[in-house]
Each structure stands twice: as structure tokens, then as C-alpha cells.
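User: Here's a structure from my thesis project, written as C-alpha cells. My advisor, Dr. K., wants to see whether a designed sequence matches the one we expressed. Can you design one independently, without my sequence as a hint?
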């Protein structure tokens, strides 16, 4: 049932317009307290401005979907189905991910009340570091983004309060 729902949501996003990004990703989530690293991988599909589907192949069946204001996920049995218009913390996380893909890192910094530093990255791209000014109990404390010369996101690191760091490496078709 989960795979049917995931496929239906993905197809809705595809029907809504041409895809702006399609490819694969690897994910490495580091639990800093224990040093444990959890690795995952899958496919990613993004259609501007607010359609994102990350379908995991390892572990198979997990998903992370943004469909307009809705964020839906099943990650190792932890499920979430939220209308982000009613949840500011999840809205900020949703927007941070969408804005990262769209290259709107200044919008992320503004929404998160964060400092944003942009420097030259690899091969003529950009390296962006975003650090929240005031510590919160939930959400992201910072982000590190690497963009290719053409503006395409290639690497995203999400730092969460609670000492969890998640790195995504994107390979776009």
C-alpha cells in the first residue's frame, strides 16, 4: 500500500509540469553522540516550486514527499503526514529543503533567522554555509550547500539540533 501511495504522489507531481530535477541520491545520517552513521540511497524528483519525491531503494519502501503544503514521509517506520501551513517547524524544514534545491539560500537564511556565507566552490560553483543565530529546540541549526557552476545542488548537509547531521549527495540526470 505504501508503494502505491508513493507512486501515485510521484505521478501527480510529474503530471503537474516538467521536472526540474531528476536523479539519485545517497544519504549519510550521523548521530554525533554515538558516532553511528546510517546510510541510505534512492531516487529524487523535483518539480518547481513545491513538488519533491525522494523514494528510497535502501531501505526499500521509505519515502520523503513534499506535495505543495503537505509533507509525507515514512523513514524506517517513523511516519509523518503534515499540512505545513499548520506547523511552523515542519514548514521551515520543508522550505529549507525546497529552497536549497531551487538555489534560494538567502531565503533560507531569512526564514531561519540565520547568517549566510557564500564562497567559491568546486569547479566554479558555490559553497554556502547557513548558521542559525538563536538556538531552538527543533529544526535545523545550520546547513551546508554545494552548487555546481550551473546552479544545480550537488551536496546538502542538514545540521539538526540534537547533534544529528545528514549529508545528501545528489547525482542529477
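Assistant: Designed independently from the structure alone:
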Amino acid at each position: 500500500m505504501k508503494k502505491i501511495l508513493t507512486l501515485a504522489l510521484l505521478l501527480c507531481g510529474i503530471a503537474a509540469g516538467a521536472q526540474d530535477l531528476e536523479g539519485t541520491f545517497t544519504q549519510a545520517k550521523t548521530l554525533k553522540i554515538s558516532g553511528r552513521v546510517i546510510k541510505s540511497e534512492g531516487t529524487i524528483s523535483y518539480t518547481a516550486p513545491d513538488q519533491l519525491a525522494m523514494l528510497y531503494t535502501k531501505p526499500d519502501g521509505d519515502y520523503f514527499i513534499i506535495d505543495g503544503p503537505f509533507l509525507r514521509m515514512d523513514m524506517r517506520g517513523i511516519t509523518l503526514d503534515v499540512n505545513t501551513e499548520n506547523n511552523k517547524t515542519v514548514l521551515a524544514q520543508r522550505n529549507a529543503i525546497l529552497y536549497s534545491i531551487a538555489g534560494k539560500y538567502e531565503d533560507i537564511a531569512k526564514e531561519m533567522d540565520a547568517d549566510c556565507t557564500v564562497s567559491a566552490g568546486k569547479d566554479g560553483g558555490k559553497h554556502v554555509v547557513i548558521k542559525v543565530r538563536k538556538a531552538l529546540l527543533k529544526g535545523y541549526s545550520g546547513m551546508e550547500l554545494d552548487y555546481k557552476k550551473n546552479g544545480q545542488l550537488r551536496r546538502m548537509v542538514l545540521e539538526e539540533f540534537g547533534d544529528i547531521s545528514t549529508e545528501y549527495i545528489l547525482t542529477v540526470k
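When you compare it with your expressed construct, this may help: Residues 62 and 75 are 5 Å apart (CA to CA).
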